[in-house]
Write a structure and sequence with these properties.
two-stranded antiparallel sheet; 469 residues; elongated; disordered N terminus; 1% strand
Length: 469
């Protein structure tokens, strides 16, 4: 390996000088930029073997201004960011903390990712990285082997930073989780989906009273008829007793499994269409695939959403159950009623999923750059905080559309003969109640986030243990 590479260390004081020296060697035409051809030729001249298309992927990963080449700032940023990911991965794999990786540590680490390999296979992996032939790999050998591999989501970092499947806050609009190839081939993915669905069911049941008062306030509260949190609970208890606080929860739990399964399968298909490498997707591609997967799942189960809202708002004795409610809607309003509020619901997926993903990625990267030292594992508290903040931001952005959706779903209880559009509902709310009217019910909605996240995380972890993950 070229000596300049051995001196590079993304967080050392000398790194800038070392990066400049390496950049000058690669920039053969001295135009201040390194293109694909220069990068390929320069690295091969230094003895670094490149796989087909690897130089193009490196440039594409680091090229922030999309001019087809890397300037010094882009080149240094790529090396610094990538080397830190390699360092975090190396430290996480180094189980005995002796500064070297052996075959048993590689075997153990792959087993934790769901891939069981033989000792011989682990030794072959080690030999492909080991330069000095002593059957252990130190940091320099690890970095030299992987520094110009443009991977953007190393398995160790992915593994610790999943958040959407176990953090269920009642609105399943978040981008689905990524699963490693090993998890998919070993069958571990379906166990995690089952654990996530179980966590969501328990979480939604625990926070159902807050969810019902939210819907109650969204539909019935106004300037002329203000409903407070305490007043709303008293009204519901007086009308139907304690069990009335859980109206609509059965269907809310029942729709978790089909929605999760459809969204996961659709997400995998959309990812393949948007990315040439299948599982290696950039944030923008992940957002598009996730949003379309969410829209696909919501389209399939949307009649259940309408039923859930009607059951949540029903008065004592109005319906004998889900089937009776569905038959009543079909008889009185027709099939079209099962898709009332569909448009604002679809529109709400985009700001929710986009902001949730963007905030979560920003918080994750901030933690990795500021606090990650010897491991990529952020710990439970950091994960919960990042997930709670990102989900809350997504909800705040999409809440007015969720309010419109709920009012349109409940239309029969308010003005059965009137056909309303998204625009007319928005105008009516703003005209009668002002801008703050778009956030009716936001208090109980915000109050349920922390307990929902906490309950779902605890149940998720216990269910994973029970399923043998």
């Amino acid at each position: 390996m070229h000596p300049i590479l051995r001196d590079c260390r993304g967080w050392d004081a000398e790194s800038k000088k070392n990066y400049e020296e390496l950049f000058k060697k690669l920039d053969t035409n001295k135009d201040g930029k390194v293109n694909v051809a220069e990068l390929r030729a320069g690295l091969i001249a230094m003895g670094i073997s490149l796989r087909t298309g690897e130089a193009q992927r490196i440039v594409a990963t680091g090229d922030k201004n999309r001019d087809g080449a890397l300037d010094l700032i882009e080149f240094a940023r790529y090396l610094k960011e990538h080397e830190k990911k390699l360092w975090l991965t190396f430290k996480s794999l180094d189980k005995n903390e002796d500064g070297r990786l052996d075959a048993s540590e590689i075997k153990q680490s792959l087993a934790e990712l769901g891939m069981d390999i033989s000792t011989d296979a682990a030794q072959k992996i080690l030999q492909s990285i080991d330069n000095d032939g002593i059957m252990t790999v130190d940091w320099n050998e690890w970095r030299d082997h992987f520094l110009f591999n443009p991977a953007t989501d190393l398995e160790e970092i992915i593994r610790y930073w999943k958040h959407s499947s176990q953090l269920d806050i009642g609105d399943n609009l978040a981008i689905p989780d990524e699963f490693t190839v090993e998890e998919k081939t070993s069958g571990g993915w379906w166990k995690q989906l089952v654990a996530g669905a179980t966590a969501g069911a328990v979480s939604r049941t625990g926070t159902a009273p807050l969810d019902r008062i939210k819907v109650f306030m969204q539909v019935h509260s106004s300037r002329s008829n203000p409903i407070s949190l305490v007043g709303g609970f008293k009204q519901m208890l007086k009308e139907g007793g304690v069990m009335s606080l859980w109206r609509g929860n059965g269907l809310n739990v029942l729709k978790i499994a089909p929605e999760t399964a459809i969204k996961f399968m659709a997400y995998e298909q959309y990812k393949k269409r948007f990315s040439s490498e299948g599982d290696k997707v950039e944030t923008a591609q992940r957002f598009m695939a996730g949003s379309l997967a969410g829209a696909t799942a919501q389209t399939a189960i949307y009649p259940m959403e309408v039923l859930k809202t009607r059951l949540t708002l029903r008065s004592t004795g109005q319906y004998s159950g889900m089937g009776d409610c569905a038959r009543s809607i079909l008889k009185r309003e027709g099939m079209r009623a099962f898709y009332k509020g569909y448009v604002p619901n679809m529109l709400g997926i985009i700001p929710y999923a986009g902001i949730d993903l963007a905030v979560y990625e920003s918080l994750k990267n901030a933690w990795l750059s500021q606090y990650a030292r010897d491991t990529a594992n952020p710990g439970v508290l950091v994960l919960l905080c990042c997930g709670t903040v990102s989900s809350t931001c997504g909800q705040l952005a999409s809440y007015p559309l969720a309010l419109v959706r709920t009012r349109m779903q409940a239309q029969a209880a308010l003005h059965a003969s009137e056909h309303v559009s998204v625009r007319s509902v928005l105008r009516s709310i703003v005209a009668k109640e002002g801008f703050l009217g778009l956030y009716r019910g936001i208090l109980p909605n915000s109050m349920k986030v922390i307990p929902a996240v906490s309950i779902s995380y605890v149940v998720y972890e216990h269910t994973k243990v029970w399923l043998g993950i």
